[in-house]
Specification:
Length: about 140
């Protein structure tokens, strides 16, 4: 499921880049974050459904991530002076890599927490709602 999502995000990334050039980076960022939040809410309600429902919500998440990453890249290049854009983009790449590793470790440790012990679909719903709340709260930091 990850490979089709990666291919999908490349295609959507081109569209997100065009939208960023046309409408500005903030507009595209907000659309991306809303897509991610909506997809997480959908995912929380569909953990016991067909794989096609879950795949659809993951496609929406990949779409939102493409929008967010495109707009954040534009934010870095617009915010920094020309002499510091290379270092800023390097730091942005480092932050994306580290956050992916830390996020994966956090999710795997949450899956092993005994306090969240419940039937698997209910457990996934609780964790997905936690991730959704984190998504919406981190949205406030961008503005």
């Amino acid at each position: 499921m990850l490979f089709p999502g990666a291919v999908f995000s490349v295609i959507i990334g081109v569209i997100a880049g065009q939208m960023t050039a046309r409408n500005g980076h903030r507009f595209v960022f907000y659309i991306g974050y809303l897509l991610i939040g909506a997809a997480l809410l959908l995912f929380a309600g569909m953990t016991d459904k067909s794989i096609w429902y879950i795949s659809g919500s993951l496609a929406i998440i990949y779409t939102g991530m493409s929008f967010v990453q495109t707009s954040l890249t534009e934010t870095v290049t617009r915010t920094l002076p020309a002499s510091q854009i290379g270092a800023g983009m390097g730091f942005y790449g480092l932050a994306v890599g580290v956050s992916g590793a830390v996020g994966t470790a956090t999710v795997s440790s949450l899956l092993n927490v005994k306090a969240l012990a419940a039937p698997s679909s209910l457990l996934l719903n609780k964790q997905t709602l936690i991730f959704t709340a984190t998504c919406f709260s981190s949205f406030l930091f961008y503005h």
